[in-house]
Recover the amino acids of this structure.
């Protein structure tokens, strides 16, 4: 076939290179830039279940943009400080207020070197100029410490193996130092004038160190009293179950509705109004089992013994008699204990079976994954029980807090009883504030907050029901300046700790020896005063405790 005369044959498609030859170098660069931009956009849009496309893979082989390379670079404390100094007063204050969120993000993304650097940076800002930051109006605005919820979230990321992991201990040390009121100078524990009646040289003698954790010997609030046995056998007649008050189920909270969610429902029990029996004998102070006085005479009144290691913590001795402790134990066993298994530890598979949840978010997770927790039962204490305990301890509790703006009102009626078996442990944590719980007098419905936020707890009230078991101390953690580490770390430690270039300190811990009928009281509910503690692992025997709270009411200023 030949085209008609005068008709030109069709022209073949011209190669792109032919067009480029007709374009200037500037136009060629612009086209190349547009083409690369289109490839990057295509790569982001075409990532599917089978992974990135060829275009995306090609884009991934290229050098990432400079901003991304800077983000991957480890943070340096000196750079953060220089950048902060270059900001205006309002910008510096806003930058400091964002630090808790940045620390949370770095922990979530497992950038632990950056977490250590940011925590150290935060501590420097808090300590500088008496914890003051600038404002545009020429005045100074105080930089607040991290909120309580933030501290709880940080510590929950450490894991139940914190005390054995150098990295987790380094992070715990840094977290303690940015929380006002959590640090303590251990040198004061060597002074007899501050040690209380139970402290002495033997109480503060350091046990062998493990990494950055220095364990002090456990502290006994009544050292002159010999420890009893863990079993329920005693020299007094133990009550039979027929002598116990009758408790009925009054409320149930589904496991998925609990905070945090749990695999087990929470059942609450309360004594029947018609039942006049009581766990405690009367409101008067009981006599204790063993002679605990200096002159070997039985103590007949409740006494307060400060715990020298932890600020504002103390023990109330002789609060319950041994027989009353036995009644508490028998009552809890009669009602029945329920396992405590948070949904974050156990989850259900496709077949509905409970399986261990992934603990990848924990820095120092263990094989048990925190599954060995104490079983519990919850009661709402009313009438003689609550009134008797309150009458015995109210004169020894702080009447006011915060310069008189918070006034003591009572004990929380929500009593949580725990039973520890060998291996049971509660990893380091911070207790949160609780409202006053009760039943509505009109409807009989359980009210988590019966006062509408007017009454909030400020102290944990931990009542020990037995003693003589092995392990099971309530252990507190404090940051110490003793043996301050520098940038040179031991070669056997984590490479992350050797390269983070952040001075690391030493975490010290001391446990309180549980004594039957005594209550350990320590602050909680405020980020500036809460204490980091754990229920240390029980080695042998069975441990019973009652946990409730000391409530305060805010006073409106005129």
């Amino acid at each position: 076939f030949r085209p008609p005369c005068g008709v030109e044959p069709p022209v073949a498609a011209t190669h792109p290179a032919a067009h480029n030859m007709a374009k200037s170098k500037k136009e060629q660069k612009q086209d190349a830039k547009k083409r690369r931009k289109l490839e990057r956009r295509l790569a982001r849009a075409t990532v599917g279940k089978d992974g990135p496309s060829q275009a995306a893979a090609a884009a991934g082989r290229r050098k990432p943009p400079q901003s991304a390379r800077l983000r991957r670079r480890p943070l340096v404390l000196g750079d953060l400080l220089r950048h902060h100094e270059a900001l205006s007063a309002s910008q510096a204050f806003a930058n400091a207020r964002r630090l808790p969120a940045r620390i949370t993000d770095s922990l979530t993304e497992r950038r632990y070197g950056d977490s250590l650097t940011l925590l150290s940076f935060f501590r420097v800002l808090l300590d500088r100029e008496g914890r003051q930051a600038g404002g545009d109006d020429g005045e100074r605005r105080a930089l607040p410490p991290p909120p309580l919820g933030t501290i709880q979230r940080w510590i929950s990321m450490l894991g139940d193996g914190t005390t054995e992991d150098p990295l987790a201990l380094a992070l715990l040390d840094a977290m303690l130092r940015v929380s006002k009121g959590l640090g303590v100078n251990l040198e004061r524990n060597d002074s007899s004038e501050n040690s209380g009646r139970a402290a002495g040289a033997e109480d503060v003698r350091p046990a062998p160190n493990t990494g950055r954790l220095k364990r002090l010997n456990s502290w006994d609030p009544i050292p002159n009293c010999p420890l009893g046995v863990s079993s329920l056998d005693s020299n007094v007649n133990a009550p039979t179950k027929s002598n116990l008050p009758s408790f009925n189920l009054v409320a149930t909270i589904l496991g998925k509705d609990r905070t945090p969610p749990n695999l087990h429902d929470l059942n609450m029990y309360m004594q029947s109004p018609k039942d006049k029996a009581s766990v405690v004998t009367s409101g008067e102070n009981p006599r204790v089992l063993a002679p605990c006085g200096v002159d070997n005479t039985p103590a007949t009144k409740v006494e307060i013994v400060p715990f020298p290691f932890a600020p504002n913590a103390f023990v109330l001795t002789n609060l319950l008699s041994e027989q009353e402790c036995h009644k508490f134990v028998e009552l809890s066993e009669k009602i029945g204990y329920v396992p405590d298994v948070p949904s974050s530890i156990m989850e259900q598979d496709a077949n509905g079976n409970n399986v261990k949840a992934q603990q990848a978010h924990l820095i120092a997770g263990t094989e048990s994954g925190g599954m060995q927790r104490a079983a519990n039962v919850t009661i709402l204490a009313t009438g003689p029980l609550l009134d008797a305990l309150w009458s015995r301890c109210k004169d020894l509790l702080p009447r006011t807090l915060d310069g008189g703006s918070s006034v003591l009102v009572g004990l929380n009626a929500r009593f949580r009883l725990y039973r520890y078996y060998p291996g049971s442990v509660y990893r380091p944590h911070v207790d949160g504030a609780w409202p006053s719980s009760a039943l509505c007098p009109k409807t009989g419905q359980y009210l988590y907050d019966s006062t509408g936020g007017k009454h909030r707890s400020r102290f944990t009230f931990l009542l020990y029901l037995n003693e003589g078991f092995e392990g099971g101390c309530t252990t507190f953690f404090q940051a110490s300046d003793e043996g301050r580490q520098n940038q040179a770390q031991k070669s056997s430690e984590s490479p992350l700790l050797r390269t983070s270039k952040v001075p690391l300190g030493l975490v010290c811990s001391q446990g309180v020896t549980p004594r039957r009928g005594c209550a350990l009281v320590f602050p909680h509910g405020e980020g500036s005063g809460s204490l980091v503690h754990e229920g240390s692992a029980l080695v042998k025997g069975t441990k019973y405790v009652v946990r409730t709270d000391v409530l305060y009411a805010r006073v409106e200023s005129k």
In short: The chain has a mean pLDDT of 75. The longest strand covers residues 543-554.
